[in-house]
Amino acid sequence: MLPKLRSLAESFLNTDQDNGTALALLANVAYTEMQFSEAFPLVERALTILPKDPGLNLLLINKYRKSHGSYGPIDAFPIIFAALENIFEWAKQQDNSARYHEVRYFYHRHRVTPYSIYTRLKSFNQRYWEKREGDRISQIGEDGIKKCRDLIAVEQTAFYKLIEEADDPIIFKDETSENTDFWEAYLNTLQDRGLAVPRWKLTPKIQEKLLSYFKTKIEAGVIDGLTMLPSQLPKYVPLFPDTMLLELREFAEEVYDKQPENGAAAKMLALIEQNGYNPFNEQAITLVPNDPEICFYVIRYNISLTLLEKLFERSQRQSKSELYHWLVKLYKEIGTTPCVSYRKLMKYPKENAELIARYKALIVQAQKVFEQRLEHEPNDWYALRGLGDIYETLGKTKLAQQYPWKPQYPWKPPAENRWAQQAWIGRQMPDFSAVALDGTPISGSDYHGKMLVLNFCAKWCGFCAPEIPYLKKVYEEHHDKGLEVIGVSLDESEAELREYIEEHEIPWLQIFEGKGWKSELAQYFGVTKVPSQWLIDRDGKIISVDTRKEQLDQLVKWTEATRVGNVIPEFSAVDVNRKPISPSAFQGKVVLLYFWTSQDYCEKELTYIDTVYQKYHTKGFDIIGVNIAG
Fold it and tell me: Is the sign of the CA dihedral 64, 68, 71, 75 positive or negative?
């Protein structure tokens, strides 16, 4: 179709070289065909005729993003500002149309926003331009910062059309007590309304209240080595509207300039900057000496032994469970732990003796924490796999076998490794909570006693849609008998997911976080490919994590039929001598079905099995061996 569109556009341009629609169409075709050198001169020509066209302006911004990184060279900023102004001006005139939502979606995908440019200009200003006062580049930076402030407000009007004041949550219906923690109260209303964090909306009144709340906490500074800022703030700060981030940033900068010892201001600035070379990271760590959260936050960008030691030390001051919390986050969100560094250093033990001793001290602390966790939660997944990692690292092979774990990419360096989903097979399904796309709260514990299929999928996955007929067949045949399906979407566009659900008439609940591969559930379970269909039996045991097509239906039937206490289903086979075998031939006997393969550990097991066979065979005991080695 693209060649036909190109031919169509060129036919109009042959008679009218200034046909803006034809130029725009030709530019889009060239861009789609990856002919960038051809596309962008056409974009610039078309913009002289259609200056407010959102698609053309987005292509123009994308040119600089692809050619020069996320923001383009400093000289390009005036061009980018003009393109942003054109997009916002167009968006302000639109209603709630499909075209408007499409433009907004692609605008956010570019991640070139007034606030993103503002943060870069501020960073350059702090490092370079203050020393170049008065030159042309410095002036572009200063003018750019002012322009960004203006454009952030315009962007809010264009793409963040806020909900009405009447939709403010219930906390505003009555005057809140002076003792009410406004932040906690607001988060509670999100849970009560079944809102997932990425989909929250802030009315002007809530923004005003939150700004007042955080400013008060910043002004309070540090008490007993901790700030008054709420916990888990790194999770929420990136979700604040740019207008809030701008005001919080400039307020915190003003406080910090006047009070360089104010750790709350330094921490807020560190969290707002959101990068590993943030000048406020080190100040925040120093000025808030009892806070493990800021250590972990910086470790995400720059892991170091000193920071790990501070994280462990500060966590231990509070409780063992606090250290467990941060260890889980190390495994879950970073994938780099003391074990990883220890294994690297052990390649040259003599040269690294001092560092090895310090890392081993951390590993021993982590081991004790995980062991204590298992005393109270025997099936805790992170404690189990953490101990497996530790015992493997320390060379305790027998213990490591009791806590099996599998790296996702064993051929890659340890720092690039994360946990593979196959290690879940045979484990108990941990409890989890989420909110479905339709607002239904979901808890893993609610499905105990039922068969459950977790279907990790995405619209953009070419292999996912062909699986739906097989999954629907399983759902339709077994739903009345207690089988449920929950979809976990790795899409980023809610509109596309809803279209996908409607197109395929999917009847089961769908979880949507809008984070793609960064979905918290996908990361927790180590999901690295889609589709991944997890089958959990009625006792909460994970049977399979990657069964597809007809095999899923077969596995469901077999799992149900072979539950303890059920009658084994009839089947037919032949033995190595070509004699027929079926369960009905063994009626009245006790039979052991032994599935095995030609591995050393299976052959060793045969010795014990043979002992039992010789002892009880004459009393009605028999064995059927099923070799699965192929």
Answer: negative
pTM higher than 0.90, yes or no?
no
> Quick check: 197 and 519 in contact, CB under 8 A?
no
3-state helix, strand, coil in the chain (%, to 5): 60, 10, 30
Average pLDDT, the chain: 83
Pairing of strands 433-435, 226-227: unpaired
DSSP states along 530-567: SSEEEEE-TTSBEEESS--THHHHHHHHHHHHTSTTSP
127's tokens: 């490092």
Are the beta carbons of 319 and 369 closer than 8 angstroms? no
d(CA 451, CA 485): 9
Instruction: Provide the residue type at 537 as one letter.
Output: D
Asked if 229 contacts 256 with a C-beta cutoff of 8 angstroms, the reply is no
The residue assigned the tokens 């315009």 is 154
Alpha-carbon span 456 to 434, nearest angstrom: 14
Phi and psi at 609, nearest 5°, equal -65, -40
pLDDT tens profile 48-87: 888 888 888 888 887 766 655 544 556 677 888 888 999 9
| Separation CA 124–CA 128 (nearest Å) | 6
Phi, psi of 573 (to 5 degrees): -155, 180
Distance separating alpha carbons of residues 142 and 551, to the nearest angstrom = 63
**Residue 191: its pLDDT value, please?**
67
Stated as kind and residue range, the H or E segment containing 581 is strand 580-581
- In whole angstroms, give the CA distance from residue 630 to residue 550: 20
Q: What angle do CA 293, 303, 69 make, to 5 degrees?
A: 100
532-536 and 580-581 strand pairing? unpaired
Contacts of 329 (CB under 8 A, 6+ apart): 296
Amino acid symbol at 23: L
pLDDT of residue 46: 82
What would the pLDDT profile of 7-56 be if each residue is shown by its tens digit?
A: 888 888 888 888 888 888 887 777 777 666 777 777 778 888 888 888 88
Residues 6 or more apart in contact with residue 472 via CB below 8 angstroms: 506, 507
pLDDT band at residue 116 under the 50/70/90 scheme? confident
∠ CA 322-325-326, rounded to 5°: 95
Q: Dig out the tokens for 291 from the structure.
A: 């806070």
Residue 414 confidence class, pLDDT cut points 50, 70, 90: very low
Q: What is the residue type of 550? A: E
Mean per-residue pLDDT, 622-627: 89
> How far, CA to CA in Å, does 145 sit from each of 117, 125, 159?
8, 10, 21
pLDDT at 269 over 60: yes
- The confidence score (pLDDT) of residue 70 equals 46
